[in-house]
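If you are new to this repository, start here. Below is one unmodified record pulled from the training split, so you can see the exact layout before writing a loader.
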Amino acid sequence: MKINITCLFICACLLAMLPRTANGQEAITRFSVEEAVREALHRNPSIREASANMAAADESLKSARADLLPKISAGYGYTALKEDPVLKTAASEVQIASREQYNWNVTAVQPLFLGFALSSRYNIARLDAISRTLEKEQTILDLTRSVRSACYYLLLAGKILEVRNGEVQALNAHKRDAEQFFSQGLIPPNDQLKADVALSNVLQEQERARANVRKAVIGINRFLNRSLESELVIENAPIPVKEYDDLSTLKARALKDRPILRLVDICMEQLGLVKKTSQSAWYPQISVVASYEKTGDNPRASSNEYSNSDDSYVGVQVEWNFWQSGKIRAEVNRARRQMKALEARIEKLKAQVLQEVSDALIDCRVARTNIATAEKALSQARENWRITNLQYQQQVITSSDVLDARSFLTQADTNYYRAVYGYLDAVAGLKRTIGEKPSL
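And here is the target side for that same chain:
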């Protein structure tokens, strides 16, 4: 009973320490965009997968390094014969060994030359460890890009929801004005109906905008490996001041820093080593062999009345396969053809990367220009809405003019926020294209 009470007390204390809002609900987690990136890089399963692959490659490298060292083996044997072994001569029979024989031995083999196969396998394992590191770098770039895009999408969805909320508020006010004017006989019935229909349509758009915000939150939670239903807020991101104008510099950075390009270069080097490993079968395999052996008539093999109880030797072992029906040549030719195919792939990949850099820079410039254009259109739409609203109050214009003005303002608002977060997303895409790592 005392243990149960203690456990309940500890649980209650832990629950009390959890962050809560004023109404007792869990506090909403707030992140900046870069904080969300760091959280994803810390918690996302794809990063753990890449780290595990790196660790596995390191173990393979250790295994390949061990192949360069001596191999030591030990054996123990026991033989029981039905009769004593003898050497028969014309005159007599002479016993030459015990009927029960015990034997144990230790053998060491040190490879000296295997046609460059061991060194090639070691270097292949070393390059594989490097490639796993590059794969993790690529995973970090891709995840960073995805998280930033998800955050900008959430910010955009939030702004669009604010626009829809403002539109609902404005059309509610317009509906009340229309009802009042209709009751005074100043407008026809269809003007009032237009206000009702417009409000109903905007309420539907408001629900869609609210759903888009929720889906955006779920998407970020997935990247951050949090509960999908957890609440979070992304703080608004400032528009970067830095301009990306020098295309040649960006292309040089991409060719130098993109992990995928360094990865294919390593693959080319590995294929060269694979070809060298295949060619190793044309050479003799030379090893030094040393052995120590004891044979006797007791379990320790310490006693032997018929021969030496122990023996040892050191020798050189040479193996050479002269004929394998063209198998070696086929393996070498296969590696050579694979290298040719990879050369073409590298050429195609470099062209693709350079195009991605050019496209990303164009997207940044277009999005940056669109911000200024959208900002000017938004200012004009706000002024048009203000004037139109005043004119409707004075019954100079109809309800259709008010609804059109509000529609123009909503579109201008939406276009402005899409331009802003489209530019931020374009910059994020450019950073990923040139291989710029996030600051951790």
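Two things worth knowing about this chain: The chain has nine helices and eight strands. The chain has a mean pLDDT of 85.
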